[in-house]
């Protein structure tokens, strides 16, 4: 298995690199350190200067070599096989292009976005773009972590089956404990809708029926995930049943890593609200599974 680590020269990206190397060392994996020279984006039309494009491209290429050199040093620290690649273009496009062309890439690791800390940083939309569109899991962190306690978050969707399988396999490979939290995505919107129609006759019955449905969804999600983990002979250290997706964040205390699905349900075509919130917080280390 190979992990592609997207590097932009920031501390967050190098911390993600160290975390990815820690995983690779325990799973006999390889690392591809990937830097994208964005010099082609600085065109004369955009900057008003005819020579700035070449100058920036040269500077970024030189910086890229420094980044890859540091990546090799980190790989050596962990005793992990590593290759370094410098590409030219728009970061999100180049990362996806390379991953799509190389089926051996099974995980993408990148730091949380950190605006304004250097010339070659990934803007926030790049990280979200990769998370939303990648065909392989994406590991996003700003800190160097040694994963010993994993929490998987599942709802009543098909992708949660993949979350359970991936989380179980990773926990086994790392010798980590595994907790499970089940939730209903975006229930806040449903409850707010009921509050808006509070004057409707017999609204209490509607709310009671809704709560019963939500409880059934939670139970289905929990049962489906535990069945998968039991079939893998994976022991679950804790099970938490919640309704609001926001409560996932509060349950992260004592856990090193959160694994969850990218989308809130099969009908959604964009990042779920909880995925967006986690990416915006820059505080939680998470793996997003498609």
Protein traits:
single chain; 290 residues; alpha/beta; Rossmann fold; 2 domains; 10-stranded mixed beta sheet; 10 helices; 10 strands; 47% helix
- Strand order of the biggest β-sheet: 3-2-1-4-5-10-9-6-7-8
Strand runs, count: 10
Give me the Rg, rounded. 21 Å
Helix/sheet category: alpha/beta
Can you put this structure into words, describing what you see?
The protein is α/β, with parallel strands linked by helices. The chain has two domains: 140 residues, Rossmann fold (3-Layer(aba) Sandwich); 141 residues, Rossmann fold (3-Layer(aba) Sandwich), CATH 3.40.50. 47% of the residues lie in helices and 20% in strands. The protein contains ten helices and ten strands. Strands 3-2-1-4-5-10-9-6-7-8 form a ten-stranded mixed sheet, with helices on both faces. Strand 4, helix 5 and strand 5 form a beta-alpha-beta unit. Helix 1 runs parallel beside helix 3, helix 4 packs parallel to helix 5 and helix 6 packs across helix 8. About 4% of the residues have low confidence.
SSE blueprint:
Layout lengths: L1 E6 L3 H17 L2 E8 L6 H4 L4 H27 L3 E7 L2 H11 L3 E7 L12 H10 L4 E4 L7 E6 L4 H16 L2 E6 L4 H10 L6 H29 L6 E4 L5 H4 L6 E5 L11 H9 L4 E4 L1
Parallel strand pairs: 1-2, 1-4, 2-3, 4-5, 6-7, 6-9, 7-8, 9-10
Antiparallel strand pairs: 5-10
Summarize the structure.
This protein has 290 residues and is an alpha/beta fold. The protein has helices at 11-27, 44-47, 52-78, 91-101, 124-133, 159-174, 187-196, 203-231, 247-250, 273-281, and strands spanning 2-7, 30-37, 82-88, 105-111, 138-141, 149-154, 177-182, 238-241, 257-261, 286-289. The protein has 2 domains: 2-141, Rossmann fold; 149-289, Rossmann fold, CATH 3.40.50.
């Amino acid at each position: 298995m190979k992990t592609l680590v997207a590097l932009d020269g920031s501390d967050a990206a190098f911390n993600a690199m160290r975390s990815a190397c820690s995983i690779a060392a325990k799973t006999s994996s390889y690392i591809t350190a990937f830097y994208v020279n964005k010099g082609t984006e600085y065109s004369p039309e955009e900057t008003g200067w005819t020579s700035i494009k070449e100058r920036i491209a040269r500077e970024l290429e030189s910086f890229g070599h420094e980044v890859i050199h540091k990546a090799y040093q980190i790989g050596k620290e962990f005793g992990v096989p590593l290759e370094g690649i410098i590409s030219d273009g728009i970061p999100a496009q180049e990362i996806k292009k390379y991953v799509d062309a190389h089926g051996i890439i099974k995980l993408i690791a990148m730091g949380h976005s950190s605006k304004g800390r250097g010339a070659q940083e990934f803007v926030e939309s790049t990280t979200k773009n990769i998370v939303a569109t990648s065909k392989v899991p994406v590991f996003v962190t700003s800190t160097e972590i040694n994963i010993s306690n994993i929490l998987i978050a599942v709802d009543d969707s098909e992708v949660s089956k993949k979350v359970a399988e991936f989380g179980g396999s990773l926990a086994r490979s790392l010798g980590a404990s595994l907790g499970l939290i089940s939730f209903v995505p975006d229930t806040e919107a449903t409850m707010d809708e009921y509050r808006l129609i509070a004057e409707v006759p017999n609204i209490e019955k509607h709310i009671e029926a809704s709560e019963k449905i939500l409880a059934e969804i939670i139970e289905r999600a929990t049962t489906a995930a535990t069945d998968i983990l039991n079939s893998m002979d994976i022991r679950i250290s804790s099970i938490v049943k919640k309704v609001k997706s926001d409560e996932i964040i509060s349950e992260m205390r004592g856990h090193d890593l959160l694994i969850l699905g990218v989308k809130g349900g099969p009908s959604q075509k964009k990042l779920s609200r909880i995925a967006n919130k986690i990416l915006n917080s820059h505080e939680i280390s998470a793996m997003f599974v498609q």
